[in-house]
Amino acid sequence: MSQMAIGAVTGTGYLPAAAGTGATTGTSGSGSAFAGTLSGVLDGVQQQQTTSDTLAVQAVTGDLTDIHKATIAAARAQTTMELIATVRNQAISGFNEMMRMQA
């Protein structure tokens, strides 16, 4: 089951191709690689929100022939936003915990 879950996450297309090119190796360019990856993820989330909004408008105006597309897009956008919020909260929690450590 874990292989299926990993395949589902890696197959979403949110991470740009540069995500696995040394972003975690500690090289001098790792900060810019992380920033690029984060930017790519946020662009993907924005694209999902835009698609969801567009399909919702089409559904309301009667231009959408398959309501399932709008429902799936809305659920995908909502789930992605919840995931991003959870990751952000965990990152803040980890940062706060590091700040409490004694040197």
Structural class designation: mainly alpha
Average pLDDT works out at: 79
Number of domains: 1
Distance between the termini: 41 Å
Form type:
elongated
Q: How is the biggest beta sheet arranged?
A: none
Strand content: under 5%
Give the low-confidence spans: 1-12, 14-26
Strand tally is: 0
Count, helices: 3
Radius of gyration, CA atoms, in whole angstroms: 18 Å
- The proportion of residues forming helix, as a percent range, comes to over 70%
Order of helices and strands: HHH
Description:
The chain has 103 residues and is mostly helical. 73% of the residues lie in helices and 0% in strands. It is elongated and about 60 Å long.
In short, what is this structure?
With about 100 residues, this protein is mostly helical. Helix content is about 75%, strand content about 0%.
How would you describe this structure in keywords?
disordered N terminus, mainly alpha, 103 residues
